[in-house]
């Protein structure tokens, strides 16, 4: 099902927002990329008989890089959203929800988006969480409340660092990431609540490359059906919060 050019080349160039644990992050050597997305890429490569070559790319640069032809696809826990579907085609492969991460001794414990009014909020740029925070800032002002100070960072690690260093009252991250961060931080953080019903996560490809999208959709579904997908997500603590039963194309909820 792969395009002939991909078969001939023997590889696909994959943009991935490293670090974004547990989806992708560096091992202790600072070079090897670990996580659920690299494992999925490896499994897809073995299934298709080609290499998936991951390249670290900031989230904000993934879609522009795809559109320019610099990368063949993105694999980075990216939300499939209607507005993004105007620029790329998504192959849906997971789901996720937003959550609030606070320090264990936090004074504020937001449970819903209106609870962030007046707080210092750390988010990663170009993410659904960043959009949610800035959108809520407008609503806070409209309701006569103090808007949150939204602090945007290039990486999720930097947003969490702002929380750890008390520059932020709360960090807004995905539920899968929040759960992983808590296991690694050993009591430093708490997740107060998931604040959204969740979104579909997709593998973006160029709009004009539907043949590749169809091949990836079939590949993801094969991994789901043969149990490889469940093993990978379970390994990274994502099975309960992030798994789906059926892949698809452009399945954005909003």
UniProtKB/TrEMBL annotation:
Pfam families: SBP_bac_3
Transmembrane segments: none
Tree of life domain: Bacteria
Stretches assigned to the Solute-binding protein family 3/N-terminal domain: 11-240
Entries under InterPro entries matching the protein: Solute-binding_3/MltF_N
Keyword Signal part of the UniProt annotation: yes
PANTHER family for the chain: ARGININE-BINDING EXTRACELLULAR PROTEIN ARTP, MEMBRANE-BOUND LYTIC MUREIN TRANSGLYCOSYLASE F
Keyword Signal: yes
The protein's name: ABC transporter substrate-binding protein
Alphabetical keyword list: Signal
